[in-house]
Design a protein that fits this description.
Layout lengths: L4 E2 L3 H5 L3 H5 L20 H14 L17 E2 L1 H5 L5 E5 L5 H9 L4 E5 L3 H13 L6 E4 L3 H8 L5 E7 L17 H7 L3 E11 L2 H11 L5 E3 L35 H8 L5 E7 L14
Parallel strand pairs: 3-4, 3-6, 4-5, 6-7
Antiparallel strand pairs: 1-2, 7-9, 8-9
Length: about 290
């Protein structure tokens, strides 16, 4: 897939980003929402990886780490998918249960799964193989917060999904949560006007955290302002001040993944959130200067 990623060129190649420049000659360590785990693959997953990764796993030039794109790298969506269609991006696509089901249910859309865990990518490839190898899926093995704004053009995403991200429940780890200001600053410009931003979690504390960040955003419109809390009792503590309304019904396009099933078995409620990207103000036409 290297032909589908534009390598650094011209001025972009020679001008490092502020983060890259700050890291020259030093070891720069970002706060990330994931931890790289062991990547040994089972024989079945290794076989799927060997056979399908060249066609489905995007391989852009790497930057300072193997989860970051090189400065100036770009992703040509029309070349990657062989067409121009609405793009759905799932950040943290895990084992691919939801991603593959969505691609099969909506062949008119293109689906990009962003996942750094290689066994999860390999399992997704195995699902793709068993599903008949649909052509409207690609996988990006990079850090979403840094990679997506670098590789994708503004307003290019029709739907953005973040389902059951690591809640990092301990207070000292809250800075590692994916849904935090740096991530929102990176991805909200990528959402097309009127696009959907869908989230789900089985942790009430994380649901509360997301509502506190997303509701005040001028770039987002809450889609279900009168939506009630999920019914039932939860095994985890409901935080003080948790919103009683504004919750979305279960998104019908989300299959029950192993992560959701684990939360339900633990007695936790499932919290769905849904927002629309607010329309950007119209740009006033520039007046021609007098001749």
């Amino acid at each position: 897939m290297s032909s589908e990623i534009s390598p650094p060129s011209g001025d972009d190649a020679g001008t490092p980003s502020p983060a890259d420049a700050a890291g020259e000659g030093t070891t720069h360590r970002d706060v990330v929402s994931f931890v790289r785990r062991g990547e040994r693959l089972t024989p079945v997953r290794q076989s799927a990886w060997d056979r399908l990764s060249p066609a489905y796993v995007l391989d852009p030039p790497r930057g300072e780490r193997d989860t970051l794109p090189a400065p100036g790298a770009r992703l040509d969506l029309e070349e990657v998918f062989g067409r121009r269609a609405e793009l759905v991006v799932e950040v943290g696509s895990g084992l691919g249960e939801n991603l593959v089901a969505a691609a099969l249910a909506h062949p008119e859309r293109d689906h990009l799964g962003v996942e750094v865990y290689r066994p999860g990518l390999a399992q997704t490839l195995n699902r793709i193989d068993r599903a008949g190898r649909p052509g409207n899926i690609r996988l990006l093995p990079l850090d979403a917060q840094r990679a997506l704004p670098a590789l994708l053009p503004p307003a290019s995403i029709a739907e953005l999904w973040v389902f059951f991200a690591d809640p990092w429940p301990k207070s000292r780890h809250h800075k590692r949560r994916l849904i935090n200001p740096p991530f929102l600053e990176a991805v909200l410009p990528l959402l097309a006007d009127g696009s959907r931003f869908r989230l789900a979690t089985d942790w009430a504390q994380y649901a509360h955290h997301m509502r506190r960040l997303l509701d005040p955003s001028e770039d987002l419109v809450l889609l279900h302002p009168d939506g009630p809390r999920p019914e039932g009792t939860s095994s985890d503590r409901l935080p003080e001040g948790l919103a009683t309304t504004g919750w979305a019904p279960r998104f019908e396009g989300r299959v029950k993944t192993s992560f959701e099933a684990k939360g339900i078995r633990a007695g936790r409620l499932i919290w769905d959130l849904a927002y629309a990207r607010a329309r950007r103000p119209a740009t006033a036409p520039t007046e021609r200067p007098p001749e």
